Every structure is written in structure tokens, then in C-alpha cells.
Amino acid sequence: MTQSKLNPLKQQLAKIPVVGPHPDFDRLTAFAEGQLLPREREEVLAHLATCTDCRELLNAAASAREIPVAESKPFLMPRPSRPPLKSWLPWVSIAATVLIAASAVIYYKNKNQFIDTVVVEIRPQPGSSAPIQSSQAGSAFSASEPPAAALQDSSAAAARPHWRINDAGQPQRAFADAAWQPVLPNETSKMDVISVFDSDVWIGGDNARLFHSQDNGTTFKLVTLPEKNGHQHAITHIHFQTAQSGKAEAADGTTWTTKDRGVTWQ
Amino acid sequence: MSPEPSTPIEDRALPIHASATNRAIEDLYSNSGARNYAIPPAAFHEIIDAVLLRYAANLTEPESAQLLQSLHVEELILARACSSGNDLAWHEFIVRFRAPLYATAFRLTHNDASARELADGLSAELYGIPNAQGRRISRLDSYMGRGSLEGWLRTVLARQHIDRCRARSKEVSLEEQVEQGVSFAASPHAETPTTDSRLTAAIAQTLAELGNEDRFLLASYFLDQRTLADIGRQTGVHESTISRKLDKLTSTLRKRVKNRLQAAGIESRRCNELLQDLDVRDIDVNVTANLKQANS
How far apart are CA A116 and CA A124, in angstroms? Predict the structure, then answer.
């Protein structure tokens, strides 16, 4: 038997001497939660890069975190197709909408759709503009004015809009089975992601464009992000853990965080 | 590993803060819930001073202010109130953290009995173990509020779980391990081909040029064999971002190593042969080697 050669990169990585003292539990926790000051983060990273023991601890603690539903396999599901409506389907749809409206995260990645219970995050899929959830019957109405039927519905979830980004990168909204309406008709930059947390809607896209709505997408305000490494970022991920606290991330890894519902970003 | 410093707070000189920091501490007091546990402002100041003493010694005043803002001050005060034996605080702690503690222990051990044993062990330490003078010393005293209390409990539990696993593996004899089906690798020295010294030097120099985050990513992925999802969970970054960073990083690494090899006088074809070893993680190498062996 000829033995395979050890990866020289691994050998050299293993040879780097450990830098600095082990971070205490507080610092390691704050590192994992993204709450260290930049200088402290660098110190902890320098140590982690060289300390197998601390990396093992960090990994064990991270893996023991409660797994968000979005990350658990049973909730992985393919993009929903739209079979012919049956009489009971609207009720299933309402039930699903209530669950999702309570709190849900939907990630579109490759051909899979991930559902969580807190936030909805939508990204466009090449060659498809399928909505994030099945719709119920209803009449068409404009994005800026919900129909009376929707407002009178006793279930708040039934009036919750559906979201998608079409092939042209335009974010669109629809209530029930009504027609899709653009919510940023004058925006020329291509949008890449929509994130929904209760009535807050965040839309991010090319040229670091970030829009925020506090009324389920009826009105939007452009958010100015502080400049980091130029203006040409494409916002590809938006994630809010609470209505106040969240993070926007660009394709190149640049991140901005807010703790005040997007009033200020760092 | 002994990450927790043991110097008692009262043995250290308390720092003198700028007035802005003092004002920030006063503001924190009103939001901390300290009044609920009858912790007066002076005692609150001491608690925050201890945090600043540990973490803000080398920070500028704006950084200290930022640190104060990021503190989980309400959970810090809850922890201190618990360690001082406040019943109301313990009630609050049990309501909020008992179930997550056991759930975390189960996710670590994947076994109900072991999880209970692990969580009960930490619960006892949190409640406090009497020292030589009969005073209870609670593990909660070492929580400083930098991260969430639940996250801190998770990290402490993870440390204890790792320590237990290591201790247990030492207790198992070689015979028992063989009976359990553990196989031992042959000594790698005899037949392992040696790596070209020019390649190792080029890699070492290139690694030294990289930033801390890049080295951390490489070590996690290549050395620890973590998945992209694992690394994403550890750093709070989406795994697709990790994937992009790693792609870019390995490509840069290859280019720089190749440049160094060529500068050392190695021809391009030979450089490419040497760099093949950088392409795969060891698991892939072994699979390839095993497949070849199975076919022969």
C-alpha cells in the first residue's frame, strides 16, 4: 500500500504557534454572537486561527445552539409548484400563512426553500419568479391600497402579502391570489433579497441599495448605509433576529448591523 | 485550558473612569433591573468596574463606551444577584435558563442521561460550591455580560462536555477500543513521501502574510475538516459567504505559492504538480487512495 502524502497546507497550518492567551468564556461567546469590538475580534481571531482547542470549543458551542428551523433538514423543501386549487386548499393556505406570519424565515438557495419561524428572506431564482408561498383566492388590488376584503378578514395573516423578486430583479408584492405589483417601480438597481419581520420589510440589492418599510411594504424609505470599502456592494443577505436588531450582508462579505430598527447602521 | 482568571474582584484596584464613562454606567443602572434585586448604585458600579478592569484596560474611551453599550447588563445583574443568593433572581434564572440548559446539554451529548448529568453538574456549580471558609462560590460570578447569558452557559457546558469526553477516552483501554471497532492507523513515518521543502517554505511564508480571519478559515476548513455550515454557525456568517471567501482565499494562496516556487527557480509544470496537494482536504486524498487500492 502506498500511503497518501499529507496535505502540506495542513502541515503548515498546524505548525503555526499559538498566538495569545485563550479567550475566556465571555469573550468566546461574544465572538460567536458578533458582539466584540473590532480590536478584540481581531485578537480572538488571531488566537482561534492557531488554537485547535478553542476552535473545537467554539464549534461545540455553536453546534449546541438551538437549530433554527431554517437549518433543520425536515423543513428543507423544493420550490412549491402550483397544483389546481381544491376546495380545502385555501384553508390549508390560511393555516400555513398564520404559521409563517407568526414568524418565519424562508431562504431560497439553489432549488431548496428553507422555512424558519421568525423572518422571511427571499432571493430571486434564475428563470423563475415563483412566490414564497401559495396564495388564496382574492381580487386584484394595488400595492399601495389593500382591498377591503383583505382588511375585513378576521385573520390578520390572511391580509399578509406575498413577496417575490422577478427575473428583472424587481421586488413585487401580492395579497392572496391578486396580481403581483412592483413595490419599487422607480428603482433601477437590481434587487437581490427581501427580508420580512412582522410588518417590517427590508429589500436589498446592487449598489448597496437598502429599502425599509414599516407597513408591510405599502411605503418604503431608502436607507443610507455607512460607506465600507466603496459603494459597489450587492446586498445579498438580510437577517433580523428581532424587529430592532439585524444584519445586512454584501456578496463580498461586508456587513452592517443595526440595533435600532435600521435608524443607525454600523 | 483555564480560561477563567481567578483574581478576586476585591483584590484589585478599581479604575478611575472619565466622567463620560461614569455617566454611561449611571444610565445603565436604570435599565439593568438592579433595583429589583436590591443592588444599590455603588454595588452596581463595582460590578461594571470589574468588567471594565478585565476588558477595557487597553481600550480608548470611545471603545469603552461601546463596550458598555454592548454589555448584557440585565443578565449580568441577574447573574450577580443569583450568586449573592437572591431568591427572586434564582426564580427568574430558573424560569429563563433551566430548560435551555438541559436542551443544550442534550444537543451536546445526544443522550438523555448524559445530558441530565452534564446539566446537573453545571447547575450545582452555578448554585455555588462552598469554599474552605464555608462561603458559596458560584460559577455565575465569572459571567461578565459580554455575550448573552444563555450563550455563556452553552460555552461553559460545551467546555465541560469536551473535557468529559477526553477524560472518558483516556479511561478506555486499548483492548476495549479494539473491541468497539476502533482501528489504529499505521505509523505514517515509514512510507509517507516527504513534501518538497521549497513548497513547505512557500506555504509557510504565504500563510504568514494572511490576515487572522483568513488563517482561521483555512484552519477550520482544512485542519479541523469543518463544513461550511459549521464555520458559518461559528462566525454568524452565511455559509455561502464562507464558501466565496474560501474559494477566493485558496485561489490567492495557490497564486502566491506558485509565484514563490517559480521565483525559487521551479518550472511551471513542476509547480502545478506540487500544488495539486493543496487542492483537496485529506479526506479526499484518502478516499482517492483507497479507491485506487480497491481497484488494484
Answer: 18
Is the pTM higher than 0.80? The answer reads: no
State the average pLDDT over residues B67-96: 94
Cell numbers describing residue B72: 448584557
Positions in chain A whose pLDDT score sits under 50: 1-4, 69-84, 104-120, 125-158
Q: Are A243 and A251 in contact (CB under 8 A)?
A: no
The distance of A4 to chain B (nearest Cα, Å) reads 6
d(Cα A113, Cα A174) in Å, to the nearest integer? 19
Give the per-residue pLDDT at A146: 35
What are the residue ranges of CATH 1.10.1740.10 in chain B? Answer: 87-170
* CB neighbourhood size of B196 (10 A): 16
Q: pLDDT tens across A144-156, in order?
A: 333 333 333 434 4
Q: Is the complex ipTM higher than 0.90?
A: no
> What are the chain B neighbours of A30 within 8 Å (beta carbons)?
70, 146-147
Share of chain B above pLDDT 90, in %: 42
Mean residue pLDDT of chain B comes to 81
Q: Identify the architecture of domain B87-170 in CATH.
A: Orthogonal Bundle (1.10)
Q: Note the pLDDT of residue A142.
A: 29
Under an 8 A CB cutoff, do B233 and A11 touch?
no
Is residue A132 left, alpha or beta, with left meaning phi > 0 and alpha meaning psi from -120 to 50? alpha
Q: Which residues of B touch A48 (CB under 8 A)?
A: 212, 216, 219
**CB contact (8 A) between residue B215 and residue A28:** no
Q: In the predicted model, is pLDDT for residue B56 greater than 50?
A: yes
Chain B residues inside the 8 Å CB shell of A32? 147, 151, 155, 234-236
By C-alpha distance, which of A14, A11, A15, A17 is closest to A46?
A: A17
The closest alpha carbon to B232, from B222, B223, B244, belongs to B244
C-alpha separations of A241 from A119, A120, B30 in Å? 8, 11, 25
Which of B155, B156, B279, B286 to mutate to test binding with chain A, by most A CBs within 10 Å of its CB? B155
A29 contacts on B by Cβ (under 8 Å): 146-148, 151-152, 154-155
**Residue A82: CA atoms inside 13 Å, Cβ hemisphere, count?**
11
Residue B181 has phi, psi (to 5 degrees) of: 90, 10
Report the residue from A16, A37, A59 with minimal CB separation from B207.
A16
Give the residue from A122, A252, A266 showing the smallest Cα distance to B240: A252
